[in-house]
Task: structure prediction
Amino acid sequence: MKIKTPNAGALTNFEVLDFLKARGASKDSSRVIAPVASSEYKVYDYLVETPASRQTREQIYEFMKKCKTYKLAKAEILNIINIAPRELVEIDPIIEHSEMRLGDQVEELLDLVRNVFPLPPADLTSEAGMDKDGEETGNEEQNEDMNETLDGDQIDGDGK
Amino acid sequence: MFYLSLIEHTLRLPPSLLSLPLQDAIKKELENIFLDKVIASLGLCISVYDIRKIEGGFIFPGDGASTYVVEFRMVIFRPFVGEIIAGKLKESNKDGLRLSLGFFDDIYIPAHRLPKPSSYEHDQENRYQVIWTWEYDSEDNNKFYIDGLDEIKFRVDSVEYPPVPIEQPEKPFAPMVITGTLDDDGLGPVTWW
Result:
């Protein structure tokens, strides 16, 4: 066995999910007939719970076009597409030296992510539901910066 | 997390697969050989993406099977250092946490890579497990628990491929080990943030 090209291109979670779906993977009972191995199914099960399951190819192209102004590294763009961060705390560990390189533009970048990868309406209400039941999770105090977003309101609005 | 890799392999096609069209038979055989296996310094093989070239078809004397040289692309799972991944808690002990992605289980967060300060206490239900707590603000008594309920985001610190041991150790051998950290904003259980 010879490895000709170890890295022939990075794949986003969405592309792998799409590839598995094209082979016939799905959640319902037609699993056993599809030509997809059980180990591949484990990957499918994992990916279906990530933001990748809600993305479309057009959304990804759109994001790639629009994020050029922020001069992000390829790894950072890949991370952002895979995680689809909605809050400042989520995007902070992704971008190195975010204050130095982007400063205020981080908010713009976050808005871009939120607009290009919108949450389906069902998820917005379920977020509110989960936070109402939440125990001692102190997510109110952590994020002083981002009180202006829709999601931020829902998290802060439960204030204990 | 995933990327493509171009691999060339000399494949012996068992005669039992001769009834299938060539491409399908080769794909099936490749999947038998590579799927769910770790290739050193490459990563975990997830899936055969496509077949680019098939050459050969020689039959060696004394052998009933034909041998092909196949060039194909494979989807490989290998996170890069600095990537952020969400996983579920598999077990936790005093050395740290172990996370699972469903298809990959050997992700360790050593104790010193948890947010500081952290402490642990023994779990009432499970004798060998402990519950890790992050004491964010000791005056407010603001403690954040790592329980097994939600997803935990971590950043990849390193990916190692320990060499295959000669003798069998007690623990099952892990050919690929990912070490991560929770020590940064936005990392840790999703409900913390």
Notes: Residues 122 and 130 of chain B are 4 Å apart (CA to CA). The radius of gyration of chain B is 22 Å.
